[in-house]
Amino acid sequence: MARPLTLVSAGPGTGKTLAVATWVREGRAPGPVAWVTLDRVVGVPSRFWGAVLTALERALEPGTLGVVQSPRSVDDEFVEALHGRLAGHQVVLVLDDVHELPADVLDGLDQLLRLPPEGLHVVLISRHDPSLSLHRHRLAGHLGEVRAADLAFTSAETRQLLEDGGVRLAEDGLAELVRISGGWAAGLRLALLSMEGASDPQRALRQFSGQQPLVAGYLDEEVMRSLGPARANFLLRTCVTDRICAPLAEVLTRDDSAPGLLRSLSGDHLLVHELGESGWSRYHPLLLQTLRSRLNRDELELEHELHRRASVWFEGAGEWLLALEHAVASDDLALSVRVGLGSSAVLVFSGHRSPLGSIISRICAQASPHDPELLMLRALGAYSQDNHARTVDLLPLVEAGVHELPEPRRTITLLNLRVLQALEARVAGDTEQLTRASEEAVRLVGGLRGEDAPGWAVFRGVPLKIVAVGQLWSGRPAAALRLLRQAMVFGQETFTGYAAVYHQGLTALALVMCGQVAAARREALAVVGQVEASPIERPHGSGPAWLALALAEQSLGHQETAASAGSRRECCGRWTRPVRASLSGAGPCAGSAHRRGPARRTKSARSFREGLCLSRADVCRAPAGRARDRGRARGGQC
């Protein structure tokens, strides 16, 4: 032990005392050990110092301390007396359960530790960092620290613990136990107790949770009770979310001391784990289950209110799926409808929208079949789960009742209706309906206030993008390009991940349809490079980019790369058909950057038409020589 002071700080059940006791038992201490287990009985200065002096006297040779008396308060005379008596002696003083000590005792201990006697090594075992001058010792290099993470069981240690207990689990069961327990020693011991003697340990593990009396009882007695009323109440009021940060904690508890409580819990406990430098923390799964079970059993109205507060906070933070999930959990139908249509609905534009449909199905399970807002939510849910037939059936029912709603609910519902009509028209390849519905959606979203529909306020540019798709299908790529750029200005922060791939792919397709082949190729390559490096969840979102790349490569005479890009299933069907239709009889490519008379425009349209009318397996079977000629002619123009 190179440092004079060591702090072992972690929550209950983490094995702090056992770890230090094992260290002592294995003879690794640098001298005899004086061990003092603390409780409230020794919480008086004279009793505390009496216990310390007695333990030191037993550890050392008789008479080493002489006539040093237990002080009522630590002063220079007492410190000098200990220095004189301990000089030349190596001894380890272990103080277990330092969190039990009151402030006046800690003040005296701090005074001694500022300049500890030579040869004295002090080990402090505590459930949280005591009020001592730890920073001073840390900066001086005099402090050794053991934290909850250092005490957590590894997978190998967990396997050994199971084997010692006569329990065998398959590798997936072991991984699940490590996940559930988080390496928490008490959690592992409780799980082991539930599996010992079970005919099927794997099944017993599946049933193991914080709601079991054995687990809940331990957490109540050893964790919640030790925290004190303020911390215990804080945990109960913040357990409704899967992760917690200081601003959210303050909203849930309505207590401005909440951020400080969260910081102290995150620093002290394995059961409250700080997620890196993100500002977020997560509660141990078993603790979370216990807290939620108690809240639901004893304070159901409070639970609903906490979910309402969480919903409002997450909506303001742009976490719209979580906002909807908490709105549903609050059992507040009006809030669920408002959040669902005003914010969470925009998740239909994400690459992974099926969770939205799952949550909406819980809202509408017992709702009125004639409410236009609930019908609209059902339609959003059906679309999110790719049930297009159900979506199409519901939309006319929404149309029939939407105009009876008061503002702004009428506009919000109508906006969702028009957007879904446009999206279903895109699926069906109905250019006229797509354009009509999306243009009205643009008008509607422009008239909404941000506070009425926070999600749509951020996604104002998306209806413009849908209009741009209609322009592409109608053979007006220049107009589509302008709309795509305008949409980017309106909602630049929304075009990330899947949305960015889709938007950039549309831009590349508009460029190639305008004859700007080199620019289209650069844009498409950037998109497909991103997709190949990090595959997105819904690869059809990259369809416009792959199609644009195939057409650009074909126009430049790069037959093999064109065929490779065109063989991607993402660019087939939905995109080749409408673009082919828009060019097949249109003659001029409206808005082309290079107009050189009817003959030139017809040739341009024909070159795209030849590429688009090929099979899905290979979009590029135009004669190589003619393709190279086209590539030379168009490459110079770009």
Automatic annotation (TrEMBL):
Domain of life from the UniProt record: Bacteria
Boundaries of every MalT-like winged helix domain copy: 221-301
Protein's organism: Ornithinimicrobium cryptoxanthini
Upper classification of the organism: Bacteria, Bacillati, Actinomycetota, Actinomycetes, Micrococcales
Protein name: MalT-like winged helix domain-containing protein
Membrane-spanning segments: none
